[in-house]
């Protein structure tokens, strides 16, 4: 069974004006039957077809019947609607293999920030966080927030209910979801920094199997986030083992992406080997200038693992800045046991001093506080921080950057977004162009107006796929159009 069979049904056809290529004509393979009467509903005429297999682009027509592609080649279909695609590229719909659209698709099913990029399939439930199974408290808090902020009622607490809700609203994109290890750990073990008992391990593994029965397509981990960060490697192996034989992957936001990157990669590979499952390394990067050299070492480690028979792939967004919560600058022990405990530690002088040391070390990896940009800030006193660099803002406010960080974290109870500028352009290009790499957005769903018009999100939410083709195909020439289309269609699908 192929590791990514879960996305095969998401390969619907999309047309995009990515480039204006030339190409030779020729007949192509027929797709599955559409209408029983053989009638063609739509013909995309004369475009340059880049089919996602990596094969050379060619000029062809595409026939669609009953929502299915029925022919690629020279099509004569009297009475069909026609889209003139001459001078344009015609490709399968794009797959975002690592998306955070999740519940936002229920808020605005039109998904403008996704569909305008050519994305037709979102793989959500990433970084250890999925839509359930929620604890009663998590379910209550999430329902209250979505009702208050978006006017949306959530009547479910697990992935099965989420999938049913998606079916009801029929979003513009197809949706697949992983089940999140962090979500499972919060549900079974809680938010404490402690090992899971044998009974708890078995219960979490059973929940992985149950999630797969409900439709989940793998297990994700977020090992820089609590409570997933509290799990030892053996716990990850035990849970991932529930996927053995399904073809579904273990996808990991690894335990570290900077100073301990090499060890984190080895841990992810170890989980795959011991559990007998494919591995997807999420948003692969070497963060911090002093770690940029590690990108080549990581790629060699992945190549060696593949040569030894392990199925490993990775994904990356096409930017040198990452996005996360500002709380991720703080050590995991500071965030243990949830928001209330975190806020209390900020008021403890001894704990705060330890936090400051760790935060300053994290910022030093980026170079300075000016490499930290606030992408979402609470309304009121600190709304002015949105879109500002912390170093610059602290100088303007006349306070130390760490002090300003603590103040805004208190005001927002930890819910502050940040963008960190810490990666190398050459490494980014090398990772994106690597044969084992795929493109992702690692972004949420937004809209230029309405309830999803909020904050100043990382541009990857709107621009990952256009930037990939514009910068790394057209401008830099790091890979061909055919290879690039393969990375966002055929590679994640098969």
Describe the structure.
By secondary structure, the protein is α/β, with parallel strands linked by helices. 37% of the residues lie in helices and 17% in strands. It contains 18 helices and 18 strands. Strands 1, 2, 3, 4, 5 and 6 form a 6-stranded mixed β-sheet that branches. Helix 9 links the parallel strand 13 and strand 14. Helix 8 packs parallel to helix 9. The N terminus is likely disordered.
Count of spatially separate domains: 3
Q: Structural class of the helices, strands and pairings?
A: alpha/beta
The CATH topology of the largest domain comes to: TIM Barrel
How would you describe the shape? globular
The value of Rg in angstroms is 23 Å
Low-confidence spans: 1-33
Task: Give the termini distance in whole angstroms.
Answer: 10 Å
Question: What is the β-strand count?
Answer: 18
CATH class term of the largest domain: Alpha Beta
Number of helices: 18
CATH homology group of the largest domain: Metal-dependent hydrolases
Question: What is the arithmetic mean of pLDDT?
Answer: 92
Strand-residue fraction?
15-25%
Notable characteristics:
494 residues; alpha/beta; Urease, subunit C, domain 1; TIM Barrel; 3 domains; six-stranded mixed sheet; six-stranded parallel sheet; 18 helices; 37% helix
In short:
The protein has 494 residues and is an alpha/beta fold.
Which secondary structure elements does this structure contain, and how are they paired or packed?
Elements: E1 13-16, E2 42-49, E3 58-65, E4 68-73, E5 81-84, E6 89-92, E7 94-96, H1 104-107, H2 112-115, E8 119-124, H3 136-150, H4 159-169, E9 174-177, E10 179-180, H5 181-188, H6 198-214, E11 219-222, H7 233-240, E12 250-253, H8 261-275, E13 279-281, H9 294-307, E14 312-316, E15 321-325, H10 332-335, H11 338-346, H12 349-366, E16 372-376, H13 390-397, H14 401-411, E17 417-421, H15 425-433, E18 437-439, H16 460-475, H17 481-488, H18 490-493
Parallel strand pairs: 2-5, 2-6, 7-8, 8-9, 10-11, 11-12, 12-13, 13-14, 14-18
Antiparallel strand pairs: 1-6, 2-3, 3-4, 15-17, 16-17
Helix pairs in contact: 5-6, 6-7, 7-8, 8-9
């Amino acid at each position: 069974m192929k590791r990514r069979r879960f996305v095969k049904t998401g390969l619907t056809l999309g047309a995009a004006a990515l480039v204006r290529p030339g190409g030779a004509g020729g007949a192509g393979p027929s797709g599955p039957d559409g209408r029983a009467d053989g009638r063609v509903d739509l013909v995309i005429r004369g475009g340059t077809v880049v089919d996602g297999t990596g094969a050379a682009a060619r000029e062809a027509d595409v026939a669609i019947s009953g929502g299915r592609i029925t022919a690629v080649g020279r099509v004569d279909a009297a009475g069909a609607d026609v889209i003139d695609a001459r001078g344009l590229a015609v490709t399968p719909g794009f797959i975002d293999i690592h998306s955070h659209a999740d519940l936002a698709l229920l808020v605005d099913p039109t998904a403008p920030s996704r569909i305008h990029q050519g994305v037709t399939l979102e793989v959500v439930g990433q970084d250890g966080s999925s839509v359930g199974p929620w604890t009663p408290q998590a379910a209550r808090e999430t329902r209250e927030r979505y009702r208050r902020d978006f006017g949306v009622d959530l009547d479910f607490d697990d992935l099965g209910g989420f999938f049913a809700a998606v079916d009801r609203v029929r979003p513009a994109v197809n949706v697949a979801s992983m089940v999140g290890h962090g979500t499972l750990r919060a549900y079974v073990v809680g938010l404490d920094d402690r090992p899971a008992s044998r009974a708890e391990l078995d219960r979490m593994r059973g929940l992985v199997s149950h999630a797969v029965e409900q439709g989940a397509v793998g297990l994700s981990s977020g090992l820089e986030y609590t409570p997933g960060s509290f799990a030892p490697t053996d716990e990850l192996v035990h849970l991932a083992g529930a996927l053995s034989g399904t073809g579904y992957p273990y996808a990991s936001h690894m335990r570290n992406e900077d100073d301990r990157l090499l060890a984190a990669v080895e841990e992810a590979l170890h989980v795959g080997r011991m559990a007998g499952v494919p591995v997807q390394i999420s948003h692969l990067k070497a963060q911090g200038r002093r770690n940029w050299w590690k990108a080549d070492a990581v790629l060699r480690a992945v190549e060696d693992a593949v040569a030894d028979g392990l199925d490993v792939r990775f994904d990356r967004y096409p930017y040198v800045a990452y996005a996360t919560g500002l709380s991720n600058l703080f050590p995991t022990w500071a965030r243990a046991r949830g928001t209330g405990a975190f806020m209390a530690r900020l008021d403890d002088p001894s704990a705060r001093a330890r936090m400051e040391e760790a935060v300053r070390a994290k910022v030093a990896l980026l170079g300075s506080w000016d490499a930290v940009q606030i992408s979402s800030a609470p309304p009121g006193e600190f709304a002015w921080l949105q879109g500002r660099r912390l170093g610059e803002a602290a100088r303007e406010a006349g306070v130390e950057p760490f002090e300003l960080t603590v103040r805004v974290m208190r005001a927002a109870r930890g819910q502050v977004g940040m963008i960190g500028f810490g990666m190398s352009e050459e490494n980014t290009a090398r990772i994106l162009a690597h044969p084992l790499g795929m493109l992702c957005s690692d972004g949420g769903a937004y809209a230029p107006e309405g309830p999803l018009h909020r904050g100043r999100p990382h541009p990857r939410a709107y621009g990952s796929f256009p930037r990939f083709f514009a910068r790394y195909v057209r401008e830099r020439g790091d890979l061909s159009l055919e290879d690039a289309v393969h990375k966002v269609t055929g590679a994640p699908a098969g």
